[in-house]
Amino acid sequence: MKNIKLTVNGTTHELSVKPYATLLDVIREDLGLTGTKEGCGNGECGACTVIIDGKTANSCIVLAVEANGKEITTIEGLSHGEKLHPIQEAFVEVGGMQCGFCTPGMVLSSKTLLDANPNPTEEQIRKGLEGNFCRCTGYTKIIESVKVAAEKIRG
Amino acid sequence: METLANEFNILGRRLPRKDAIEKVTGYAKYAADYAQPDMLWCKVLRSPQVHARILNIDTSRAEKLPGVKAIVTGKDFNGWTWGFMSQTRDESPLAVDKVRYHYEGVAGVAAVDEETAEEACELIKVDYEELPAIFDPEEAMKEGAPIVHDYRPNNVSVEYHWDFGDVEKAFADSYLVREDRFETGKVITGFLEPPASVAYWDPSGYITVWAAKQSPYFHFRHLAACFNLPLSRVRIIQPFIGGGFGGTKNDSTAADFCAVLLSKKTGKPVKFMYTQQEVLNTCRRRHNMIVYNKMGMTKDGLLTAVQSRVIANGGAYTAIGPLTMYLAGFATGLPYKLPNYRYDAYRVFTNNPVSAAMRGHGVTHTRFACEVQMEMMAEQLGIDPVEIRMRNAIDNPKRGESYRTVNDVTLKTCGIKEAIQAAAEDRLWADKNKEPKQVGPISYGVGMSGTSYLGGARQLGHQSCGAIVRVLEDGTVNLLTGATDCGQGSDTVLCMIAAEELGVKYEDVQIKRVDSAYTPVDPGSYGSRVTALAGQATKLAALDAKKQLLEAASKVWKVKPEEIEMKNSVVFLKGNPEKQMSFEKLAKIASYEGSGAVIMGKAYSGYGIEPLDFNTGRGSGGTTYSFTSQTVRLGVDMETGKIDVTDFFIAHDCGRPLHPVSVESQNEGGAVQGLGQAIYEQFVMDKGITHNANFLDYKMPRITDIPTIRVHDIITDDPDGIFGAKEASEGSIVSAPPAVILALHDATGVWFKEQPVTPEKIWRALKEKERGL
What is the total count of domains within chain A? Predict the structure, then answer.
């Protein structure tokens, strides 16, 4: 077992983890934050997207020990009580989801995108969400949600 | 069932989905998010053989591994098998005497954690005697081919021969007759959430299961039958579902049965979660079909006859195949007038993973063949693609009348002509010759399709849905149905229907997930039937609750109940709208007056269709039919074959969109899934073994691949649809492939008859064309 320190959604956790445990396993099993989903376990679908030190990552292909000492944001860290993040509000208003399994990852990839560029073109939105699969919506309402979110963030 | 649209308060509005907040915050719990104290993990050992006799299974080494708590094999299920019809129950939870496809389940292990369960699987020794195997359905039909199931010595698992009108005479009288071979691909539903479940067989003899099922009552019945328990002792608690699209999540998997039995053996809850590799290797997929299509036309391009001989690669078991082959044949003519039709269908066993239902079930194969062939013939006759469709399209029947196809499919509304016209007038089609055809190596093309899909589909047996509307004393409402929202938005639509009928605010109606111990029995989410039938039940249940409330109000105001109306949570006198009270106040009066009442409206929808006749193919497969005309614009790099699809325009007759956001999103999603089927997705299989069982190599459309999509609603208000509504999404998964493939023809001049049309196929076809082959 390895001892690591993870700051997740602002709270620091000292954890003892298996050296081969993925960050996804630790987030879901040890911390009980099940908003981060496992779709493929291979870094291909983006359902397990989290933000590590400001950059999105597929947590299913990051070892927990690699994330030692880092700041991690999961979907649970975006809203505060009943107060949604503007990106979440936009997804709700536009209907940028169906089954919802990809939604946490989509929202977090949108956050990283909009943090860096609050006024993205449609092409930049597509590029920013390229790593996130959605099988339900055909992406159209997701793109629309990100556009609305960008407007909200710009104010 | 008709209601005028301008009377709606709730329906037709772009309201937020009921589940939106849970989904954007990550608090929506899916099956894999559930856990129980002291829970074990289940893994399934799978066969490396594609077709082999099981000689012996030795679990002794695995049993000794610390942490292993129990192991089950096929024999532990006591010969129980399941399947769609009594005569096709040919599948066991785990293989018993022989395995019939690669990675079929052979044993199930329960251990303290996932890794130990996996390790134990590796320690189980199975002796196999390899058998000759067969993979190609046409080869499998030949005399002397290896036999997959002894009860079907010719390997044909389902066979239909239907004949309507006089096909031979019609072909003889036709000006033009064509015969072509078409083939649809080996594709899968592609949900992101792998099947998962937590199962607990408690010591008092009840099973409780948290399982990822889009039709939980199938699973409910499977578990009761498999374990010989009364239905009342089986409880399926439904988590959120991470996509369904038919097939796997409408059925039970090997691990579903293993987890329950392992829980019984250990006395502990048992959880499993498939890997995506297990899904792509072993789960239900769309049938891959070969369609030999013969079509006749008059000189003016009017259809005279179609004869379809369809051979489907069924894989190792029958599953829902009898319905697949029915759906592939019964609506072949739609959306066109077809006076003569013959259908010869063969679903063939092979040593491949099992083929079953997928969105656009059945219809997608034959419509693709007919749609492409029709346009090939139009070109031969010098008739424009819009014109050939308009000449053959079924007219929208006048109110009170209906249209019957040659095999007695009955339509009360048909928006296909309006849809084709809308597509033809839209800029994609109307301006197609204004843009340069070729820019550098890119050749542009525009294609069109005209298609149909059924709503309110029936399988066999139980068709009705039930609903309970509970009005609480503060005027808020709980809606209970057995219907499953696996993403399509039905919970939202059902709440809208309840709010509309009851006259309350949308935000005052809540719905939770299915729990078979409390919610009404329901057939499930398939065949675009949930809004149609659970919607009908919800409407009737709301009316029942309303009746009870109006009676309470009539006592207060000393008028007849029919003199009172409720809208937007306000109760008022029809003749004197100034006289009002809040819905909350009425609910309170009704709940507390005298000894008080419990306001509970309940109903089930008896609104359905007659049982399907698989042997003759006569009759309606659904209660209503949607119609779609789709156009597609794309560019093909003539040097590399690379395709860039830029635009979709979908004119879709869904009757009336009740929740427009969901209708659009369903159309968009269905069309993009159809795009995947048309040009990207295909299992690479060699001798029954899948070589691309991951999302990198099995290529589903990403956000960078998708066109700009516009959806145009055609309103027809079907008298058989709930509030006029018909289906959405299965229509666009059927309309997209032919439209894309006809656009590819427009761009390249090549007729493609096999899906998917990959860049490699285009490149090869262009090289052949250059060489004049």
Answer: 2
Q: Which residues of B touch A141 (CB under 8 A)?
A: 661, 664-665, 668
| A88 to chain B: closest CA residue | B24
Suggest the residue from B115, B248, B703, B735 to mutate for an interface test with chain A (most A CBs closer than 10 A).
Answer: B703
Query: Any CB–CB contact under 8 A between B193 and chain A?
Result: yes
Burial of B659 (0-12, 13-18, 19+ CB in 10 A): buried
Q: Does the pTM exceed 0.95? A: yes
Token pair 């419509």 in the structure block, residue = B367
Distance CA B524, CA B534 (A): 9
Structural contact between residues B693 and B765, judged by C-beta atoms closer than 8 angstroms: no
**Closest-CA residue to B519 (of B473, B555, B557, B470):** B470
- Closest chain A residue to B693 measured between Cα atoms? A40
CA distance B237 to chain A (A): 17
CA distances from B212 to A42, B115, B577, B704 (A): 21, 22, 48, 29
- Asked if residue B392 and residue B256 are part of one domain, the reply reads no
Residue in B28, B189, B706 nearest the CB of A138: B706
The pLDDT tens digits of the residues spanning B480-511 come to 999 999 999 999 999 999 999 999 999 999 99
Q: Which domain holds residue A55?
A: 2-77
Residue tagged 């525009």 (tokens):
B446
Domain that holds residue B709: 285-458+612-770
**Residue among A126, A136, A137 minimizing CB distance to B704:** A126
**Smallest Cα–Cα separation from B668: which of B628, B710, B631, B705?**
B710
C-alpha–C-alpha distance, residues B538 and B491, integer Å? 11
| CA separation for the pair B281, B211 (Å, rounded) | 20
Strand order across the beta sheet in which A11-17 lies:
A11-17, A2-8, A71-73, A49-52, A55-58
Residue B268 and residue B111 in contact, taking contact as beta carbons nearer than 8 Å:
no
Identify the CA nearest to B218 among candidates B514, B534, B608. B514
Q: Which residues pair with B651 in a beta bridge?
A: B629, B712
Q: Which residue of B has its CA nearest to A45?
A: B695
Q: Could you give the angle at the alpha carbon of B743 between the alpha carbons of B770 and B436, nearest 5°? A: 75
Any CB–CB contact under 8 A between B506 and chain A?
Answer: no
Q: What is the mean pLDDT of residues B270-276?
A: 98
Cis peptide before B335 (omega within 30 of 0): yes
Q: Does B4 touch chain A (CB under 8 A)?
A: no
Q: What's the DSSP call for residue B722?
A: G
Residues of B in contact with A40 (CB under 8 A): 192, 276, 694-695
Query: Which of the listed residues B559, B577, B604 is the one where a domain comes to its end?
Result: B604
| B695 in the same domain as B622 | yes
B25 — contact with chain A (CB < 8 Å)? yes
Distance of CA B244 to the CA centre of its chain: 8
Q: Do the beta carbons of residue B535 and residue B441 sit within 8 Å? A: no
Chain A residues whose beta carbon lies within 8 Å of the beta carbon of residue B696: 42, 44
Tens digit of pLDDT for each residue in A99-134?
999 999 999 999 999 999 999 999 999 999 999 999
- Cβ separation of B706 and A129 shorter than 8 Å? no
B191: chain A residues, CB-CB within 8 Å: 99, 101, 135
B192/A95 Cβ within 8 A: no
Residue B428 CA to residue B747 CA, distance in Å, equals 14
Question: DSSP code of A31?
Answer: S
ipTM: 0.98
Q: What pLDDT, in 10s, does the model give residues B111-143?
A: 999 999 999 999 999 999 999 999 999 999 999
Query: Distance (Å) from the C-alpha of residue B291 to the closest C-alpha of chain A?
Result: 27
SS3 B465: coil
Within this chain, do residues B620 and B715 fall inside the same structural domain, yes or no? Answer: yes
- Indicate if A139 and A104 belong to the same structural domain: yes
Q: What is the pLDDT of residue B270?
A: 98
